[in-house]
């Protein structure tokens, strides 16, 4: 699994390694504003257990002589009574506009200086202020109003954060000649290529994280540090990658170039070829018309969504032998322009997204080891007998919102998908559930369709099915064949909302825990309506045609696990007294034998908001 570093220095959060989970294109970094704080900057004497008496600015916390926390106390001026022995000083979330040279120069032992979320101007941050700080390792200046960086920072620095300022210029010795420097955060500024010196990282060869996203760069910067592992350049105006710009970045693992103006003309065939350590490459939201050539073989995740790509050639991705995730959504790819051997050598590829393209049929020769295939929002008109004949390992298949009709889905189309767990056919023109559904299915979605009939034959042997979503169709009670629910003995969630049901379907499976029947024509609830579902937890009957007279007094009796009963939006306000009788107890002889719960419309609405998501 590829690990992506969460960069949030500008927000005061500590970066950390988190698993890559949601494959979404992030084009903007939001930096929260400074938090409100108390006022006052007078001195006070603070005595802490185990510490000697020390002078500490008012409302600050001095846990020791080396650590002073004045964050969020509404300071408008730099504290004047700080000890020269301080090593860690926190002044974030205040109102500081300037840092006096004499105030900072005394703190010669300072290692950490946190000044983010203030109102610092460049003229209020004199270059000489940092000259005496020859032990400073961590400098945080994010979320201020700086337009240029200090000309010279201490050579001892390890992490520097200038995110979310108004920077237009950086000087050579701001980051240059810093042998210990590891991470530089410059996102959310106004930087252009003219504002970056060519020798920006000269003598700082060990920088491994550089964040330049959300600026005004038009070209990839030159002379990047050779040991970079993560480079963020998304949300700029980059249209060109100069020849050799990445040639020395052999250890780069993550490269973010999404949301730029890159075209194939701005990418040389050798641009990425020497980046042997690359595992994550994001080129989404650009102007590419084909997959760039010479992509390195060790890429695990390749993001190419939201471009203008029209085809996948035989050799465009076949050399990326470690590829696991290929994301091609929101392009212009047609099935006829995907070469039959385009995926032939990708033995590790398990996730393929080609949704929102103009595909009219399932692409031929899909990767054999696919586990997740997203083909939603295309124009696929039929599923042939052999469309999925080689994808034995599929567990998740999404064909929703295409142009499928029931008669155009072959009855043997899914015969080889013996590991399929989730199938989504919503938003098509299906009138019947397809025949030959895999018995391994755990969740089946056919929402927003034209389904008007259910039969036991279609659900035959579907013992693994736990969730069935059939909302927004045209089902009536008379078109649900007797015995249908016996074929799904482990069903836990059934969504039949927005159909044309006149009463609750009989003989529901005993395993059922959630049933959604909203927006039907149900007018009567009898004592037998839910007798077959003793384990039911949630019943949603809102927006039907129920009245107080139409709901029997014993309708919900004995449903001891029932937590939510939603009857809102019916013809009358209905208040139900729920009775749960304890087994083996005498009603007359035990005060705990019967519990009573009364639900109101408002309570039902609040509880329903916390239910499992349904269509």
> Radius of gyration in whole Å, from Cα?
32 Å
| Measured distance between first and last alpha carbons | 31 Å
For the report, how would you describe the main beta sheet? 23 strands, mixed
Strand content: 15-25%
User: Low-confidence stretches at least 5 residues in length (pLDDT < 50)?
Assistant: 1-53, 580-610
Overall mean confidence score, pLDDT: 87
Percent of residues in helices? under 10%
Shape: flat
Estimated structural class: mainly beta
| Count of β-strands | 29
Number of alpha- plus pi-helical segments: 3
Question: Quick gist of this model?
Answer:
With 615 residues, the chain is mainly beta.
Write the layout of secondary structure elements.
Layout: E1 3-6, E2 16-19, E3 43-46, E4 54-57, E5 61-64, E6 67-69, E7 88-90, H1 101-105, E8 112-114, E9 138-140, E10 159-161, H2 172-175, E11 183-185, E12 209-211, E13 230-232, E14 254-256, E15 280-282, E16 301-303, E17 325-327, E18 351-353, E19 372-374, E20 396-398, E21 422-424, E22 443-445, E23 467-469, E24 493-495, E25 514-516, E26 538-540, E27 564-566, E28 576-581, E29 594-599, H3 601-608
Parallel strand pairs: 6-7, 7-8, 8-9, 9-10, 10-11, 11-12, 12-13, 13-14, 14-15, 15-16, 16-17, 17-18, 18-19, 19-20, 20-21, 21-22, 22-23, 23-24, 24-25, 25-26, 26-27
Antiparallel strand pairs: 1-2, 3-4, 5-6, 28-29
What does this structure look like?
With 615 residues, the protein is mainly β. It is flat, with a radius of gyration of 32 Å. The N terminus is likely disordered. The strands form four sheets. The protein has a 23-stranded mixed β-sheet. A two-stranded antiparallel sheet has the order 1-2. A two-stranded antiparallel ribbon has the order 3-4. Strand 10, helix 2 and strand 11 form a beta-alpha-beta unit. Helix content is 3%, strand content 16%.
């Amino acid at each position: 699994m590829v690990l992506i570093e969460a960069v949030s220095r500008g927000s005061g959060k500590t970066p950390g390694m988190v698993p890559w989970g949601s494959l979404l294109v992030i084009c903007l970094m939001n930096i929260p504003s400074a938090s409100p704080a108390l006022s006052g900057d007078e001195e006070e004497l603070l005595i802490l257990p185990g510490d000697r008496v020390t002078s500490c600015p008012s409302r600050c916390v001095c846990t020791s002589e080396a650590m002073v926390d004045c964050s969020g106390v509404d300071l408008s001026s730099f504290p004047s009574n700080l000890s020269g022995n301080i090593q860690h000083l926190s002044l974030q979330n205040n109102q500081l506009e300037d840092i006096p040279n004499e105030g900072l120069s005394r703190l010669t032992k300072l290692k950490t200086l946190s000044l983010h979320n203030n109102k610092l101007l460049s003229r209020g941050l004199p270059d000489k202020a940092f000259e005496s700080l020859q032990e400073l390792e961590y400098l945080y200046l994010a979320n201020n109003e700086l337009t240029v960086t200090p000309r010279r920072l201490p050579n001892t620095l390890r992490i520097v954060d200038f995110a979310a300022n108004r920077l237009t210029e950086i000087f050579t010795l701001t980051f240059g000649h810093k042998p210990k420097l590891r991470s530089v955060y410059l996102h959310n500024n106004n930087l252009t290529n003219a504002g970056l010196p060519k020798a920006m990282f000269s003598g700082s060869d060990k920088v491994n994280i550089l964040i330049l996203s959300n600026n005004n760069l038009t070209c990839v910067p030159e002379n990047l540090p050779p040991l970079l592992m993560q480079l963020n350049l998304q949300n700029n105006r980059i249209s060109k990658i100069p020849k050799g710009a990445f040639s020395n970045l052999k250890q780069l693992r993550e490269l973010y170039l999404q949301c730029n103006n890159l075209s194939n003309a701005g990418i040389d065939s050798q641009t990425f070829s020497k980046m042997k350590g690359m595992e994550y490459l994001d080129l989404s939201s650009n102007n590419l018309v084909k997959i760039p050539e010479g992509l390195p073989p060790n890429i695990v995740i390749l993001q190419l969504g939201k471009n203008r790509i029209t085809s996948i050639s035989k050799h465009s991705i076949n050399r990326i032998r470690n590829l696991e995730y290929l994301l091609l959504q929101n392009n212009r790819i047609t099935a006829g322009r995907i070469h039959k051997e385009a995926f032939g050598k990708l033995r590790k590829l398990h996730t393929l997204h080609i949704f929102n393209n103009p595909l009219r049929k399932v692409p031929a020769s899909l990767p054999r080891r696919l586990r997740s295939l997203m083909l939603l929002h295309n124009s696929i008109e039929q599923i042939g007998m052999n469309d999925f004949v080689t994808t034995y390992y599929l567990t998740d298949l999404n064909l929703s919102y295409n142009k499928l009709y029931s008669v155009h889905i072959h009855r043997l189309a899914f015969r080889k998908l013996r590991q399929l767990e989730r199938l989504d056919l919503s938003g098509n023109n299906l009138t019947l559930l397809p025949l030959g559904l895999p018995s391994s299915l755990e969740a089946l979605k056919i929402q927003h369709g034209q389904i008007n009939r259910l039969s036991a034959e279609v659900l035959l042997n579907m013992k693994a099915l736990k969730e069935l979503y059939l909302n927004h169709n045209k089902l009536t009670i008379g078109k649900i064949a007797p015995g249908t629910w016996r074929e799904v003995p482990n069903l836990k969630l059934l969504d039949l909302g927005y159909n044309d049901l006149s009463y609750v379907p009989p003989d529901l499976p005993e395993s059922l825990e959630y049933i959604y029947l909203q927006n039907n024509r149900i007018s009567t609830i009898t004592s037998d309506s839910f007798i077959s579902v003793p384990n039911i937890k949630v019943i949603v009957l809102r927006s039907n045609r129920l009245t107080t007279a139409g709901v029997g007094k014993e309708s919900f009796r004995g449903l001891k696990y029932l937590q939510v009963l939603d009857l809102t939006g019916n013809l009358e306000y209905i208040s139900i007294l729920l009775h749960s009788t304890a087994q083996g107890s005498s009603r007359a002889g035990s005060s705990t034998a019967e519990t009573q719960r009364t639900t109101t419309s408002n309570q039902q609405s609040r509880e329903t908001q916390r239910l499992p998501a349904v269509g």
